[in-house]
Q: What sequence folds into this?
């Protein structure tokens, strides 16, 4: 029997889209989006997953290290282009996953209507996913491992 994850955010009441956010939408959130989309294709077919950034440079491709790490898992990030989070994206999402506690606080101040739908990816494990931008392959591997861990927890709690 698979153990239940620790107490965390309440499960959403709807099957609304999932939005994954980080700062620039070129490292962490694209990796999390691709991994979550692949998981949910099996667990919850048709549930939309997208990503954006809180301070995204528009139209930039995913970081080459993120592309390479996901390619090793059979996932293609080569077509990803960064985008800025918008009020419409926030309004449409039933679940908004962020990488850091500070991002959650910032987003809840910026968009009070999103409160209750904004959750940290590491909420169950009590961790943030540090930004690997410009830090080399090891930092990307560590971020990806934490993203996997957070997604495992959400999968067991929400979609398992």
A:
């Amino acid at each position: 029997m698979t153990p239940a994850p620790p107490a965390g955010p309440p499960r959403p009441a709807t099957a609304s889209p999932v939005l994954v956010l980080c700062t620039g939408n070129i490292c962490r959130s694209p990796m999390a989006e691709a991994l979550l989309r692949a998981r949910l294709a099996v667990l919850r077919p048709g549930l939309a997953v997208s990503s954006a950034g809180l301070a995204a440079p528009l139209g930039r491709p995913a970081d080459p290290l993120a592309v390479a790490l996901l390619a090793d898992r059979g996932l293609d990030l080569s077509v990803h282009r960064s985008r800025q989070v918008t009020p419409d994206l926030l309004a449409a999402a039933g679940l908004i996953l962020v990488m850091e506690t500070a991002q959650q606080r910032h987003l809840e101040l910026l968009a009070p209507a999103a409160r209750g739908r904004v959750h940290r990816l590491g909420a169950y494990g009590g961790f943030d996913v540090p930004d690997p931008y410009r830090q080399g392959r090891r930092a990307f591997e560590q971020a990806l491992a934490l993203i996997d861990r957070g997604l495992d927890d959400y999968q067991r709690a929400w979609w398992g």
